[in-house]
């Protein structure tokens, strides 16, 4: 298998004020509505979608989007809208929707339908993510009862998978959803279904769920690979315990990456934008992070609780560029430096998919493209073959597009082929 | 309404109650506290089925003690998740909660009387919400009811603060008339700098407040108002004047919703009324139940 690189855009709001952290309680859930400017958003959305399309041209294996609600670092409550746009303007990269918070869709069958649409539209390029969803999104924004969220999630999963794999019309009698006629129309190109990615924070129940169903487990954190190693080690121990193959394709990781000509240039170009992200975008009121009942007892007992102490609330530390780079939050520097650290990251965490966060915070377009292009041309090629032939035959948890798919970028001109637009109103 | 679930039984005085373990026909196992009046209950002694709030019972319950001193028998179930027995996964929604209350009453023999011994309901906050739903289901089985600042109604003009988004140290401010007193009651002097204590606290919080969330999250309204007409039971509403969680405006709403209700406001009390002004609560409740 080759390592897959997915260019990911969280779609942060770029204009949070300098005093955001002191004057506002949270970037998420009760974020101040007056900070959003819809006319500014017109340009922001297009810039971010242009960057995703540029990543396809650069040869990234995937382009990725995700779902957040009432969140100023992710203005993408509906990733499927963005993914549909991308499917119309690209034809190479996998469209990685990581993902739809399936318990939030009413009925969750909607996800089966929309993902099937995206798979058809993209010619089988969909990578389908099913997050449980953060408490900020799931509980505080979308009102799901914390203690029942996981049960509802599992039920939604069962409904969607049966909708994709059962060729007959069937009745679904769930606790949370009852449907007399389930009949997913359209159906996905990829059979029996697109590859499933389960993005996880730190819930250890999720590991068993992924392994039982042969789904990819992707650890999405902004704390970098050094901090992520403990959790990924736990995951791989569980893989071994359950006697599953140790193929890296089972795992993914999100990493913030800044590439420049030299290490010094990386700091000069990207430092302020990383600090914007860490010191403003991650300013989440801690009361929204852990509603009782959301995390299971098992996860609490396995986890660290320091963040809930009063003194640590007050001392929420301000990170510096040095902290970010040395702590592995950000892999930054010249192509050589980045390649070396990326190799270390991929091997340590044993991952087959890397979600590359090459746009972060309020990074301007030209810097994003500069960093992405250097990475694609000078870093990525040397990393793809890291796992050699050892897992050559292994399932790689990646999409299987059809060969003869529509190449919308080639046919776009045809779409405007009328010599003259009709004059006047059309009946 | 939260941190009181800390297991501080080590330091508790000899309990004023007997604890029995009950398994309902739904297969939910949980303890029930039984407080007998001095000299034991006679055939005509009325029983109060008392339901706790989301904080659970404390080792000492001054209101329950006071009711017993006034000659009442008190049966106080520990709700699943507030005991070590588990089984909370068997109850998901408001109907499950209310029926569980009646299931416990059945197991405790409270519905098998000869018609002379009366059954009263008492509930605080979340417990008041459950008691009211029980009375709506089976008003004929209840003689009288007292609700201490119950949850269960939502007024758009008086939004109830979101306790599920509060950090533990923020609770005292909304729960007690005097937050300094509240801090002491809530933490029970526990040392949260100790990781084991903190983990134990977080596990208890996840189980208990997670369970409470099934009927209180995200809005503590499971449409009781539409069933309130069935509560033909004479009901007393007791409210702390300084209740900053469910403010006294809700006393009026409850009174308007119930066919036969009166209100008693208590000074110097917030939402943790039964711990802040127990004597006033006992006096009002006793007068109502024995009235």
Find the count of extended strands of chain A (DSSP E, 2+ residues). 11
Counting helices, strands and paired strands, the structural category of chain B is alpha/beta
- DSSP, total strands of chain B: 8
Structural class of chain A: alpha/beta
CATH topology of chain B: Rossmann fold
Name the CATH architecture of chain A.
Answer: Alpha-Beta Barrel
Strand order of the largest sheet of chain B: 1-2-4-3-5-6-7-8
Please give the count of helices of chain A: 15
Fraction of residues in helix of chain B: 25-40%
- Helix-strand pattern of chain A: EHHEHEHEHHEEEHEHEHHHHEHEHH
CATH level 3 topology of chain A: TIM Barrel
**CATH structural class of chain B:** Alpha Beta
Q: Ranges of chain B with pLDDT <50 over ≥5 residues?
A: 1-12
Major protein interface: A-B, 27 and 28 residues
Mean pLDDT of chain B: 91
Shape of chain A: globular
Q: What fraction strand of chain B?
A: 15-25%
The span between the termini of chain A is 55 Å
- How many discrete domains of chain B? 1
Mean pLDDT across residues of chain A: 92
Annotation field: number of helices of chain B: 9
Please describe what this structure looks like.
The complex is a heterodimer of chains A (427) and B (291). Chain A is α/β, with parallel strands linked by helices. In chain A, 41% of the residues lie in helices and 12% in strands. Chain A contains 15 helices and 11 strands. Chain A has helices spanning 20-23, 38-58, 79-89, 109-121, 135-141, 146-165, 205-213, 224-241, 263-281, 297-302, 310-314, 321-326, 335-349, 365-383, 408-411, and strands spanning 4-8, 62-65, 94-97, 126-129, 170-173, 178-182, 196-200, 216-219, 251-259, 330-333, 353-357. Chain A has an 8-stranded parallel barrel, surrounded by 8 helices. In chain A, strands 5-6 form a two-stranded antiparallel sheet. Chain A is globular and about 60 Å long. Mean pLDDT of chain A is 92; it is low at 305-316. Chain B is of the alpha/beta class. Chain B has a single domain, classed as Rossmann fold (3-Layer(aba) Sandwich). Chain B has 9 helices and 8 strands. Chain B has an 8-stranded mixed β-sheet with strand order 1-2-4-3-5-6-7-8, sandwiched between helices.
